[in-house]
Amino acid sequence: MNNLKIFLCDNSIDGIFTAIYQAWSSGYGHSNIKIEEQCEKNSYSNIELFSEYIIVETNFDQAVKVSNSIKTKISLEAYEMTCRVALSDYQGKGDLIYRFLILGFHIGKNIVSHLSNEVVNRVFKLNRYVSGEAHHLLGFIRFSEQENKILTSIIHPKNNVLSLVTPHFADRLPNERFVIFDGNRNVCSLHLPEKSWIIIEIPSMNLNDYDILIDDEYESLWKTFFDNIAIKERINPKLQRNNLPIRFRKDMTEFIPERINSLI
Amino acid sequence: MVIQEGMSIQRKLEILSDAAKFDVACTSSGVDRKGNGSGIGNSLACGICHTFSADGRCISLLKILFTNECIFDCKYCINRSSNDVVRASFTPREVCELTMEFYRRNYIEGLFLSSGIMVSPNHTMELIFDALRMLRDEYHFNGYIHCKAIPGTDPVLVEAIGWYTDRMSVNLELPTASSLKRLAPHKSRKNILKPMRQIQLRRESNNEYLGIYDGRRHVSNQITMTNDKSSEITNDNRNSDRDLLLRVNNTTNIVPYNKAPIGKSRYVPAGQSTQMIIGATDESDYHIMSVSETLYDNFDLKRVFYSAFVNVNDDSNLPSTVSGPPLLREHRLYQADWLLRFYGFKIAELLNEKNPNFNVLLDPKCDWALRHLDEFPVEVNKADYYTLLRVPGIGVNSARRITTARKSAILDFKDLKAMGIVLKRAVYFITCNGRMMYPIKLDEDFITRELLAVKDRLPFGIEKDITYKQLSLFDDVSFQPDDRLMLQEISHA
Known about the structure:
Radius of gyration of chain A: 22 Å
Number of strands of chain B: 12
CATH topology of the largest domain in chain B: TIM Barrel
Number of domains of chain A: 2
CATH class of the largest domain in chain B: Alpha Beta
Largest sheet of chain B: 6 strands, parallel
CATH architecture of the largest domain in chain B: Alpha-Beta Barrel
Shape of chain A: elongated
Mean pLDDT of chain A: 88
Strand order of the largest sheet of chain B: 4-6-7-8-9-10
Structural class of chain B: alpha/beta
Distance between the termini of chain B: 37 Å
Number of domains of chain B: 2
Distance between the termini of chain A: 72 Å
Mean pLDDT of chain B: 82
Number of helices of chain A: 9
CATH superfamily of the largest domain in chain B: Aldolase class I
Radius of gyration of chain B: 24 Å
Strand order of the largest sheet of chain A: 4-5-6-7-8
Low-confidence stretches of chain A: none
Largest interface: A-B, 57 and 64 residues
Oligomer: heterodimer
Largest sheet of chain A: 5 strands, mixed
Strand content of chain B: 5-15%
Low-confidence stretches of chain B: 217-231, 250-261, 464-493
Strand content of chain A: 5-15%
Helix content of chain B: 25-40%
Number of strands of chain A: 8
Helix content of chain A: 40-55%
């Protein structure tokens, strides 16, 4: 009996693609291979007995080779889907992408329509889940104006969507300096006028401390608007909660109670 | 009338957002526009919801009135001239500042500017025009703008404003001219349809000029009247429309335009919408939906919105809404509206003179399907897209998914489930490979009973107000006086 070969990789698109490259070229056979990404909570999942672990160092050249193959041999759509799956919080996404690509390279660009296939179906759902959260955040992100007119936002998304939402704001606010912090991952995206946006890791900063933000005078105007636009005769917290899940609200100006004036 | 001098911006916003809350069309959809590299703003065709207010409705735009000072006395409106409410007005600059600062902070997708009528329709629209021009030209705002056109405004102003907005809307207010006359004595059907027609024709000529086909059929010169209900809308003379357009084209040269050459700009790119108040007057659902169908077919409207009547003025001449606004009725109208726009239904298939109101217990599509059992069951692996769309429980997304997935495999019920297609309702109307999921008799009574047992997916909050299930299946033990009122209101015709 062959031992299962487990490729352990970074939890990033490049990490997963590198692992796929190495797994593919290893020649162990698809059924003897499993790809495991370092999961979001920064620990490897339980170590399996009778398996051989292979640590994968992220290699950009190999990752780019995989990206290019997906784009040319399957389709751009499939590439974008796999990228979004790689950004999701789903455990086992590395292996899922691997299985998806095996099918994809075999079937070609029609792979995305094979919705009755279990692997394709899961990829389809995860893709929708990640795009859905990113789309929500395009609306739910709140900037607060800080010193030097820097617009600052903190979000706590389930999936690693920073790279999906930032281009929208860079296009929308070309002359603004803005930062979006991902409080769950300690990364942020940064945009300066006339420069392309970047994503930076900031491991040491505690983003969950809102006292780092100073008051913004427009926040109370926005709350005034928010409170008055509701029709009292139709108050409907269930519908509101269905449309705007509670988890987003802790980062949204209109749901944060007035900050207590720190001047005692 | 109370007019306060030197009011703070906070107080003005409080008054003028509260006064705007009954306007329904807070959508930011219909136009894709990338950022222009300078300035501020872009727009996505799918629209973006920025938050949801306590009533659960989407907030996408900064929805405000320019002023709530109003010379009109519409019976249903809180700002009618005979009401003693605090009045306030923004200045164009205040509107711009609020829009820009809210937009930068990603509170909103753009501006939705409506207004009471101060001095005259023209005077008000000139102020609105000033605000929009300042916002676009001085503040370089490139986000979404939705602007109301006040009936009775000079066509020259409507023409000018259209170049600065993404969407314009003229409120139809009430489904018939006679209701309008009764409740909004200062507005007339003619004054409402005139700017609507003007915007439609201007959009057509602009699209034609730019070579854009925006997916909608063009107005046929032959006015097709499927029923007499809609005749009062379609009856106006096409020749006078063309004259109007000519007149506008010739006279608007004096209006200073956007700096961008007119050759590239688009006139009301996201199209126009309108809204009707539901339940203030006694029109039937059939009547209301016939009007909507006409508006979609002959006026190229993108959306018709329905607003459940709330008797804000406690006017004794209008129906009481103490037991809550007619939300279920509003919901049924929206469901039917969707059937018209995306499902290929005609209103005559859903309702008729003898059966003029929607079923309280079943959604319009289920109701239709039960009356057309001869067209079912439908074979999932073979039926075309529009036939699939007619199956209760199968929506646009499900139908698309089915037509995609069946290219590569023969679908069975378990595949449908895996694809996220809800079978609760659909199971009575479909076959996979010639088999139904369970041995089901295509019997109207049986399926009706089964469908009623499936919880109707009403928007949250409506279900608790009416105990419709008990009403339908059992005796009237649980029939509360309140329910009786509510039901009368829903089904009153």
